[in-house]
Amino acid sequence: MPGFEVFGEEEKKQIYDVLETGVLFRYEFGEQRKGIHKVLEFERDFAKYCGAGYAQAVTSGTAALKVAMAALGVGPGDEVITQGFTFVATWEAILDIGAIPVFTEVDETLNMDPEDLKKKITDKTRCIIPVHMLGAMARIEEIVEIAASRDIAVLEDTAQAAGGTINGRHLGTFGDCGTFSFDSVKTMTTGEGGMIITSDEKMWRNMSEYHDHGHDHVVNPGGRGGEGRSFIGFNYRMMELQGAMGIAQLAKLNAMIESQRANKKRLKAAAAKIPGVKFRTLVDEQGDTATFFAFMLENREQCRKVNAVLGDNGAGAINFSENSWHFYPSWEHLHNGSTLAASGWPFAEPGGKRRVVYDPELLPESADILSRTLVFPVSIKMSDEQIDTICSALGKAAQAI
How much is the average pLDDT of 224-246? Predict the structure, then answer.
């Protein structure tokens, strides 16, 4: 990651096609656009790539979560279960649609722990959002089975794992729908942008209309049609320049992942020499996008010592237990119920009654796992010098333990 490392003539050609028409809006302007519909083409390409029936492009991965939940009927009074190790966007979207986020532990996949999931389901659970975090898959088949036994929808947050698979089946296709992010640091990028995939035609139609202010799209699937409206919506439309970028980047995605896998393999071989090291559990190593390389030490103290050596040798790793954007105990605005709304919404009802209170100590197993886990981002184009620096630092850390 990220895809801007491979920007080239392909992206320029797609963007030039749009600029020649002068039409940046994904709908209408039929004569002027000369048959150019880049967002629609990107949607169709992405659905085909993933093996899904339908794809709906939106403005961001965050918007994808909200549009998907709206189409699933999630709203006030509902609980949505997700994991305590994810980017804040996952639970921000849940709160923004009016539902209450409920957090599970992660296991050594660094994704949702199915056993803890079972404990968190209540009669109010409307949706489960496992996150394929740091480029690798959750135990999605187990999670879907648990959800199905309770007739609960599953939305796969695949923001960081586009192109990932389990036994050849693409992540995002196991649940009712899957969401993706194409922001500036994702393996494939459109700068900003997101996508939702599903094989449920009715859900896709609802997403299509909701993301376009509720416009009636029924008479013209994939485009605008009549002017009747079945429900209210909002504006989460992707523009043509983003769609153009997406077409070019998607065509390179498999090659980008292969480069990341090769780079990760070299890092893993070096880290394997550290006494007591353990690698992140992968449900299907062949389907890993290799966006990140994660390894675990025996305890917090050993982890800190290893990372100190890495830092002293120009290759400090990320410890997500100390990261304020991705791990539950560090989300002080969630714990404090901080909001701009005078009423205190979404943490409080009008009148001030608190809807939910979060305990920072809620997820001790996740805290233990992440406190002893180190992570390196894996780029598409890593020079031999970059990789050698990290590998050399890992070697010195192995000698220091």
Answer: 90
